[in-house]
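[step 3/7] fold_predict: job queued, chain A
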Amino acid sequence: MKPIPTYRGKFFSGSAAELFAGPADFYSRVAWSFDGLARFRVYLRTIYAVAAPEFLHQILVTKQKNYPKSALYRNVEQTIGKGLVSLQGEDWINDRRIIQPGFHKKCIVSMVGTINEACDRIFAEWEAAPVDYRPVVPALREIGLQVISEPLLGTTLASARSARLSETLMAASVCLMRKNWSFLQLPAHWPTPLNRRLNALHKEMIAFLAQQVERRLAEGVGTRGDMLDLLLSAHGEGKLPKERVLGEMLTLFSAGYDTTSSGLSWAVYYLAAHPEYQARLREEVRQVVGDRPPTWEDLEHLPFTEAVFNEAIRLNPPIHTITRTCLEEDQLGDYLLPAGALLVLSLHGSNRSPRHWDRPNLFNPDRFASGAPTVANELAWVPFSSGARRCIGAQFATVEAKLVIARLAQAYRLELKPDSKVRTSASSSQHPEQLFVRFARW
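[step 4/7] structure written:
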């Protein structure tokens, strides 16, 4: 049995500075500096970075009971409340059963019109206020929030409200990453600057959702058939405490818009940087859809459109890492993992595995020409995690992304701003920063 290799950092802070500068790249780099597994230190804590796809599969699928969510998910609960992301055991099973009907195929099919309408609204706003190069991420976050508000709340958010909610969610994501790896893990009620900021952001988001709950209770539960109805019906039947109604709503809001807007932003970046793929995309959409809004039936005939999104989230999965704790000593390949080890599973690193992908850092949608990775690469493509806790909204996110990418290809030629220095956000989610693109009408 071989000892797990160590990635060396500074004497006092360990690798804290490198981590905060770019967490997604850092975890991947640490793990692949060795054999897809390495340990490093952040201040007083030793952490194990895991990127080898076969190790992730063991942790998330074949031995998942030995690897529950880590204590760091208490910080997630401080940020967005108790929901599917942080819950475990019977509480997670209960909430998953309640929420699952909202992600059935018929619900996703019904969202096609909503997605097209959101694109029409945002495109009209762009036309009314043209700019030379537009900041991409805020624009696509707006589409994401407009889309997700319909199945969750049964309504469309006003632009000012959705913009503010987007800012709040992103600020919370940055604070969460800081809290996870701060020098001391202090309780949420301690009045540190970071705790005060996180608690204020949480309070603002919960207040907004509480208003939506009170409005729905006043008009009658069961009138819309949306996610809020599902959760409030479960609450009325005694299956879900009110605290978790709000926690699940905030969890779904955060994950629902963040996943898709991140993947879409990276897709726009890669298309703008690769005109040859952009031309192929436009030709596919032109052949299948023409100038009309795409329909559900069109989606299966847009394989290259889906390949563009799949490759974008291979390179930049929206949630770049998840954490687990090793309950009992376990063997990962030739390495012995100690009981109690805190693991950071790098989805970003697995998706770029040099053992599974040819030129893994290169954007190449043709890897997904058949619509899915090959059997040889299947373990190394986990943009939505894997196993029982794979993202419940993965299909919804993919459908939304395909439709929005198709609409963008119909309407605009994407031109990257010259001398762009795009970088990855230093937060718990992964967005491109400093991304400016000209959306030029064909």
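[step 5/7] annotate
The mean pLDDT is 90.
The longest strand covers residues 37-42.
exit 0
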